[in-house]
Amino acid sequence: MLKYLVRLFAVLLLLGGGILRAEEINPPFGLRWGETAQRLERLLAGAKATVVDRRLIDGKEAWEVEGLLQTGLKRTVFYFHRGELVEVELQYQQDGWDDARYTNLMGDVRKRLEQKYGEGQLIARRTEQAPEADVTQKLIGYKWNQNNTAIELVYFAAVKAGSTESYRTLSVHYKTF
Fold first, then answer.
1. Under a CB-based contact definition with an 8 Å cutoff, are residues 91 and 171 in contact?
2. For residue 158, what are the CA distances in angstroms to 60, 75, 101?
3. How far is the C-alpha of 26 from the C-alpha of 23, rounded, in Å?
4. What CA–CA distances, in Å, run from 104 to 2, 109, 117?
């Protein structure tokens, strides 16, 4: 009887461990870390997306891409090290969206990420007046780390007082180390 209970406990522990374990962090769009630049270029052409800029940033080749269809997605930046995919940044911006719309989008994205990867770590939360300007800046950020990969979710807003001038962006940045 004791032998049976030990086996049952072991099975339950294995099943429970699988449920509690967070998913592996992979880049979006069904991609994998290490995808080659050549393969990604073919995939982008098939999706009718356009590489609008290529430049070096911190020793990595960065491709700024527009035309990937997703609500509010303005651009996607793919980063390559030695020809292999190491980062993907989704930048959400939409004319006419106010702070509430970005806050709702951030809440939705954060909820999905927490369902997959567990609770995120708060890395930034501040609102401040820019020196010598009538601009209020707001920064909120969360981060998820797992097995040499990470996701950072960051909202930034700069709003000029007494004006309709503003800049707002929400970034979801996938990284492998």
1. yes
2. 28, 19, 15
3. 9
4. 53, 9, 20
For 104, residues 6+ apart whose C-beta sits below 8 A from its C-beta are none
What is the bridge-based pairing of β-strands 135-146 and 149-160?
A: antiparallel
pTM of the model: 0.83
Tokens of 105: 């989008």
| Alpha carbon of residue 5 to chain centroid | 44
Report the run of H or E that residue 11 belongs to, with start and end: helix 2-20
Return averaged pLDDT per consecutive 10 residues of the chain, 177 residues in all.
41 40 84 96 95 96 95 96 97 92 96 96 94 88 96 96 89 96
At residue 84, the 3 state secondary structure works out as: strand
Tokens of 128: 């401040």
